[in-house]
Amino acid sequence: MDKILVLYTGGTIGMDYTLQGLMPVSGLFRSQIDTLDSIKDVELDLIEYEPLIDSSDIGLEHWQRIVQDIADNYDNYKGFIIIHGTDTMAYTASILAFALRGLGKPVILTGSQLPLVHRRSDGWNNLIDAVVAADRSDLNEVAISFNNKLLRGCRAQKVSTYRFFGFDSVDEEPLAEFGIHINWFTKRWLRANRFNFAPIIPKEAKILDLSMRPGFTTDFIIETLNNVEMDALVLQTYGSGNIPISNSRLLSSLRNAVERGVIIVNITQVIEGRVSNDYASSCLHDLGIISGCDMTIEAALAKLQILMSTGMSKKNIKAAISQNLVGELTEA
Description:
With 332 residues, this protein is of the alpha/beta class. Helix content is 27%, strand content 23%.
């Protein structure tokens, strides 16, 4: 009998309707999955977190606990499922993708747009698909199971608040599709890791995310760069990595921040595509800014957080940012 550990952090899937609106209810998720027909040769163990949270409350301490729980139980289970709210599921998936260094088992995140108590809940299919994926012995990465697809965790983003098609990975094809038959696209999967499992507990880091916008936002970015203490910045730029290069104050603030030791990563704010050096306004490497290639904002933030948690030098962190570590980017 294969054993899978389910870590239930909260989220819509286990919520109930109250006078105050949808809220997590202790014990409800367990009572719901107890009604689920057993899946052949699979046994589920459940750890319910206390307190259960809405995923908008996710923070460093929750990521630390999830990583630690997986580490503590790693040798006892074939795979892991993280039940998580959808709002920040992609952020947690990216954190886990980098933090679970040397992962040799599936870690599947899932949740739902409607709670299990709703007659039309999408949570049942998502949960069953997650169990099937977590039982694969040849899947060695973090993924999101949602709406009949299995997506690489550090490539996925939430794309809808009201459709069951809640997540997508625009720049990366799915790892599997669940229909009448399951299509396992194993050629896209990460290869078995040659390193032993050595998880990294996320640590505090001062990482900002700022997005270029015309007008006052540019002035705000300049003021932030000049006056706010930070370790790193993910700068979401226009198009293929462009900024207003005629703005000398912006260029000066970026250059000065880099000279102070701030690691600045350039990613596009466009849903599909990557930063490049095709335009003069996108040649930010001349300022010491690092290309984030086609990373999502969730992946870029998580990658910086975990790399900084290792104690690596800033030089080595900068070198690693543009390298493909866990399938998070497409190298040029």
